[in-house]
Each structure stands twice: as C-alpha cells, then as structure tokens.
Amino acid sequence: QVQLVESGGGLVQAGGSLRLSCAASGRTFSNYAMAWFRQAPGKEREFVIGINWSSGSTYAAGSAKGRFTISRDNVKNTVYLQMNSLKPEDTAVFYCAARFGVVSVNTREYVYWGQGTQVTVSS
After folding, report:
1. What is the dihedral of CA 9, 110, 23, 68, to 10 degrees?
2. How much is the average pLDDT of 22-48?
3. For residue 99, what pLDDT is reported?
4. What pLDDT sits at residue 87?
5. Is 78 helix (H, G, I), strand (E, B) or coil?
6. Sorting pLDDT into bands at 50, 70 and 90, what band is 61?
7. Which of 19, 20, 82, 116 has the greatest number of CB atoms lying within 10 Å of its CB?
8. What are phi and psi of 34, to 5 degrees?
C-alpha cells in the first residue's frame, strides 16, 4: 500500500523559507515521478515542481523557478521541497503526489497523493 506523508508546513513571514518533506512508502519509486502541487482557497490544484526519481531531473512551474527546489533522498525514500523568498500568494495546502513515469503537470495523471500540509505566508 503506497503512502505519501507530507510534513513541514507552517506559518512564515514573507521573504522567509520553509522545507517540506514527503515520506514515501509501500513500493519502489525508482520508475516514478514525484511532484508537489498546491491548492489555495477557492482555486484549482496546481503543479509546482516535480522530480524524476531515477534521473533526478526536475521541472518547475514558472511561479516556482528561482525560488523553489525539489530533491530526493534515495535512502530515506523522501522528497523535499525547499521554498525560499516566500510570498503571501504562496499560501496554500501543498500536496505530494506520485505517478509512474516522468513528471507531468496534470493532476489527473498522478495516482498517489498525500494528505497535504498547510503553508501560510504572512505579509
């Protein structure tokens, strides 16, 4: 049974940083892509950044480029989202997701999802 468990959310001031973690279990993820999505109140869930587990190659949405980075730890089976220079508009619930294959920006292509972690950025 695949489980994705996010942690690390919280309240931070604008300009600050947070690191989210996604602990993955239940299978080998070497042929999978892992991604972070976010959903703000009243908005659709949107792709933030993703990583292809085996190659380590990454892909980021425009809003994340230059501020967010994604990485993975093969030993801990954990994916990290480092967020710097946070803005109030980054406030959202952040979700970790996994799919077989390469990174996709389409939420419908992800089979496994975590429960989400709240990130709130104050101005």
Report:
1. -50
2. 95
3. 97
4. 97
5. strand
6. very high
7. 20
8. -115, 145
**Both tokens assigned to 80:** 């990290």
Containing H/E element for 118? strand 117-122
78: nearest Cα among 100, 51, 117: 51
Q: Name the nearest CA neighbour of 71 among 79, 59, 62.
A: 79
Separation of alpha carbons 49 and 68, rounded Å: 8
Which of 31, 58, 36 lies closest to 47 in space, CA to CA? 36
Confidence of residue 71 (pLDDT cuts 50, 70, 90): very high
How far apart (Å, rounded) are the C-alpha atoms in residues 67 and 56? 18
DSSP 94: E
